[in-house]
Amino acid sequence: LANRLMHPEDTVIDVNGIKIGGQENIVVIGGPCSVENQEMVIKLAQEVKDAGGVMLRGGAYKPRTSPYAFQGMQTQGILAMVEARNKTGLPIVSELMSSDKIEEFEEHVDIIQIGARNMQNFELLKELGKRTTKPILLKRGFSNTIDEWIMSAEYIMASGNEKVILCERGIRTFETETRNTLDLSVIPIIKEKTHLPIIIDPSHATGDWKLVESASLAAVAAGCDGLIIEVHDNPECAFSDGAQCLKPKKFKSLIDKARKIAQVI
Ligand code: PEP
Ligand code: MN
After folding, report:
1. Residues framing ligand 1 (Cβ under 6 A)
2. 109, 75 contact by CB (below 8 A)
3. Which residues pair with 92 in a beta bridge?
4. Ranges for the DAHP synthetase I/KDSA domain (predicted)?
């Protein structure tokens, strides 16, 4: 179902009127790694919007390496995101980790993110196909090949939800200088093999805010359909991923530079 040969036209996914894929335009999604409280996410949503971002990201259920690290605000975090959407009009993207929360996400979230760690949680992927109608942002697992990633998209599509957006977020390599290695070659390869939109997450791909702009501009030049970037007002105090978060001002200047390479809506 994801195969370009069976479906020559690009799939365009419409999220409350914002189109992802198959367009001249690229979309920029910004927001915190974790929703920390309602005020912060409402403030950030407005800053993301003022900078030129068209959607808000924010994790409420967090897949943390340590069980002692902040696990997210859960339902309260989703409701804080909903409040931020009410205030700004920005559609919201958040990560789902287990199938018992599908109804909550189906009701409240505009794009359901499946994180790198769950890319091959096949039972969850099948449930998404059966029980959701919302677009699914499927991140590439950090040790998965492109064909494995496409097969995970296929699981969701074959079970009934064909609205899949692929997201490259860096893979594990021998390199230790960056958190992950951004695999930019996926952009033309995914476009050749599939008809699905592909967006890039330069924040997790690099792990370092200083590298986020160049990774983003390179991805835009390579023809991605969008970017999803972590933004925080006070990265030093972020509950998660502070080292890779951009301040709103830097996020805006990145978007301004991206506009010189491609049309950004
Ligand atoms: C995230 O988006 O905050 C996240 C945990 O991403 P990934 O699944 O790519 O690590
Ligand atoms: Mn993060």
Report:
1. 33, 59, 63, 115-117, 139, 169, 204
2. no
3. 56
4. 12-254
Fold of 26-59+71-258+260-264: TIM Barrel (3.20.20)
Q: What ipTM was assigned to the predicted interfaces of this complex?
A: 0.98
Q: Which residues of 146-177 are buried (b: 16+ CB within 10 A; e: fewer)?
A: beebbbbbbbbbebebbbbbbbbbbbeeeeee
Residue bearing the CA closest to ligand 1, atom 3: 33
Q: How far apart are CA 198 and CA 31, in angstroms?
A: 19
Say what the pTM is.
0.97
Condensed to tens digits (0 to 9), the pLDDT of residues 114-157 reads: 999 999 999 999 999 999 999 999 999 999 999 999 999 999 99
Domain residue spans of the chain? 26-59+71-258+260-264
Give residue-wise pLDDT tens across range 40-49. Answer: 999 999 999 9
Distance 104 CA to ligand 1 centre (A): 20
Residue-wise DSSP of 16-36: TTEEESSSSEEEEEEE-SB--
